[in-house]
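Re: the pair you flagged

First of the two:
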Amino acid sequence: MFQVARVFREGERGRNHNPEFTMLEWYRLGLDHHALMQDVDALLRALLEPHCPVGPTQHVAYADAFQSALGIDPLKADAREAAAALRRRGR
C-alpha cells in the first residue's frame, strides 16, 4: 500500500524545512527494516540509473545514523541533548 500526499508541519520552518511538502509513504506487511531499506534502494535505483550511474549503497539503521552523525542515541536522547548535538555539528 502506498500514498503520495501533501502534508503539513506544525510550527517547523527553516532553511531545510517547509511547512508544506509532498511525502511518499508506503507499507509492506511482514517486512523488517532491512527489507524496507532494500525497497528504498531498489526504488531509487530504478529512478536514477537510467539517468546517471549509481554506486554501491550503504544501509544504515536509524539509531546507527544518529550515533554516527551526532554521537547520540535518538531513542534515549531528549530534545535538549539533540539540540546540543546539532549545535556542535553547526546546524
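Second of the two:
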Amino acid sequence: MRLVRDDVRPSQLMTREALENAVAAVAATGGSTNGVLHLLAIARELGIPLELDDFDRIAARTPIVADIKPGGRFVATDLHAAGGVALVARELLKAGLVHGDAPTVDGRTLGEVATAVVETPGQEVVVPVERPLKATGGLAILRGNLAPEGSVVKLAGHERLFHRGPARVFDSEENCFAAVKAKSIEPGDVVVIRFEGPAGGPGMREMLHVTAALVGEGLGEEVALVTDGRFSGATHGLMVGHVAPEAARGGPLAALRDGDTIELDVEGRELRVLLPDDELAARLAEVVPPAPRYSTGVFARYAQGVSSASEGAVLR
C-alpha cells in the first residue's frame, strides 16, 4: 500500500541499471539460461535497450560466488538460509560489479540492502568475491555461421570450453529422446534438436527429457547439444540453446545433415559448422521446413507473431 500511496511505478525500479544487476546475479549464481530470455523480454516491454552482447560482457567480468546446483553443492533454499541473494549482492558490490545506487522495491538502494544483510555464521553457500568458484560468470553468448543472431551456452556445471564432433540431427525433442533411449547416440556426437524455437515449437520448449536422458546414459560429459529450443536450469554438460535465427524461420540449423562437423568454441565465442559458405547457403535455399504444428487457434497466431529468441521471444 505504501507503493500505491507513494506512486512508485515498476518502470521507476526496473531501469537499465537494475537489469544489468539482474544479469550479474544470474551470472554470479550459475543461473538458468532462461534468465537471458526473460530479461530481454522485460527490457523490451519497458523500452530499455538490452542485447545479447550485454549478457556476454557482464558475465565475462562477473565471477561465480554462489555454490548452487547443478554446478554446485547447494540449492536455493540453502542460499536463503545463508542470508539470501543480498549476500551475492554484497560480494558483487565489493568488486564494483553491480550498481549499488539502484533503487529497490522496499525503498532502499541495492547497496543499502547488501550492506544490511545478515549472514548466517559458518554458511558455505556464498563465497568471498576474492576467492570465487569460477573467475567468470555462468553463461556466454556464441555466434558464428550456425547462430548469426546469437545463442546461449551455460558454463556452470561443466568444465568443457571446446567440442568438435559429428552432428546427429533431429527435428523434434521426441525424435531425439527416442534415439537416446535406443542408445544410438555416441560419445563425441553433437546432438542437434531443431524446429523447437519460439515459432517452430511453437513456444520454445525446454529440452528437459533429452538432457536428463543423456546424463542418465552416461553421456553428459561426452556429447554436446545444440538447439533452437531452451534448457532447464538443472541442465548439466556443454549445451547451447536459443540458437537464432531458429530453423523454422530459415536459420542455419535447418541446413544441417547427419555427419556434418560442428564446433563449439566458448573461448572464441563461436558456434559453427565446418562447411563452405556457398554450400551452406545452397543447402538453406533447398530447405523445405515441416508444416506448422498448429494451423489454427492461439498457437498458430503465436507462431506467426513471435519474435526471435535473441529479442526475448516477445510478441510483435
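The beta strands are 139-142, 150-154, 162-170, 190-193, 224-227, 238-244, 261-265, 270-273.

-B.
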